[in-house]
Every structure is written in C-alpha cells, then in structure tokens.
Amino acid sequence: MNAPVITVTDVVTRFGRNLIHDRISLTVGQAEIYGLLGGSGSGKSTLMKEMVMLLFPQEGEITVLGHQLSTISRTEAALLRRQWGVLFQAGALYSSLTVAENIAVTLKEYTDLPHDLIQDIVRMKINMVGLPAHAADLYPAELSGGMVKRASLARALAMDPQLLFLDEPTSGLDPVGAEAFDQLILKLRDLLGLTVIMVTHDLDSIWTVVDRFAVLGDKKVIAEGTLTEVRANPHPIVRDFFGGERGRIRSQNGKQS
Q1: Which 3-state string (H, E, C) describes 99-164?
Q2: Please, which pLDDT band fits residue 181 given cuts at 50, 70 and 90?
C-alpha cells in the first residue's frame, strides 16, 4: 500500500439507538482505488459521508490528507473540501442547469477565473469523461443513465481534486455501460494520479478496478485487503459475497483469481 491519505480509526456511528459502525478502522493509500463493500444497511455510504464531512461519527477519528476531521477548523475544512470531488449515487445534477452549467458551478463558486477560461475547463472535463461535445448544452432530463454518471463525474473533477469519492457509480447501468464506466475510472486514476474511494456492491467492479477494499458487516470491518487476501477470509459474510453463484461465475471467468 502507498502512503495513507485517509485513515479511519475506531469509528462509532449511531443514529439514535441504531448502531451503524462499532469501532471500525481502515486505511486508504495514495493513488489507489479503494472499495467499500457490504450489504444494504452495512454503513458504506454513511462512512463515505463521514469522510467528506457530511456526517460526523460519535466516536473515533477520521483523518483525510493529514487533517483530523474531528478538530478541523471551518477555514481548513473549506480548503480541504476543494481537494476532493464526489459523485453521488443518483448523480445529483441540478435539473434546471445544462451539463456545462452544472460543471461550472464549483468553478464559479470557488475561483475567480474569467468566464472564457471556465468554459475551456468545462469543455475539457466533458471530453475527459467521454461525453460528446454537444452534451454540454443538454439538461439532465435529456441524458441517458450512463451520460448522467459521466456528467456528474465531470463536475466532480472540475476542481482537479486529489481524492474522488464514488457512491455506487455503476448502479442503474447495464453491464456494458458499467464496464465502460469502470474502465473510465481506471483511466482517470492513471492519468491524474487520483485516489478513488468507491462505495459498491458490484462484484464486477471489485474484480475489475479496485486495488484494495474493505468488507463491512456486523457493524464492523470484517475484512480488508486485496481481492486475493479478502477472499481467503473465512468470515461467513465474505463467503456469501464471493462463494455465491455470481461470485463463482466471476471467479471462473477470472480476470483476477
């Protein structure tokens, strides 16, 4: 593993009396694609929201790019947020804005760049994620599911972040579209040196693009490591994920054993 850029240490998360995380710990290395895998309700998306300061745990510590989130000042937090981009599961594009206007929002909010330069950056980001040039003038309702994902990714990349957070990025895509999106993430990681944190339950993504991942279950991290390392873990939840029919088929097709 490369030098850590995110560490989660003994995090406890509760919603009322409902315990979500019971002292979970994990580490994300620089320039790796790190997956958060687990069943529905295991706290994957909640943990990602804590990493980007949309939620805060009751106990424990999360450190991102050297900043302890429990003690960070407002000024430091504002600067840190510029270091990451987030792609939410449904895309979260503004429906009343075109693709180009959606991408330009953060550039207008956080920079003093002239209008023409912002437009150049927007066009570059649209091209970077594989959208056709004419998509710039389309509204979210006019996009396919795959185009929404790519437009949302372009917006997440607008500020040239160090970290990229993806919440179920292939959810709702057909197998061809999901594979194409996975390959795009790989390409961008290699091109830009991004560290990517991907919340997913898609086994294809785990096999195809993820370097290391954590499996969340029973309110804990029950396994963490490479695919080979995690598959060797005897925990029943791990066996259920990778020993079921889909897991066996994927293993037999074997992009990675």
Answers
A1: HHHHHHHHHHHHCCCCHHHHHHHHHHHHHHCCCCHHHHHCCHHHCCHHHHHHHHHHHHCCCCCCEE
A2: confident
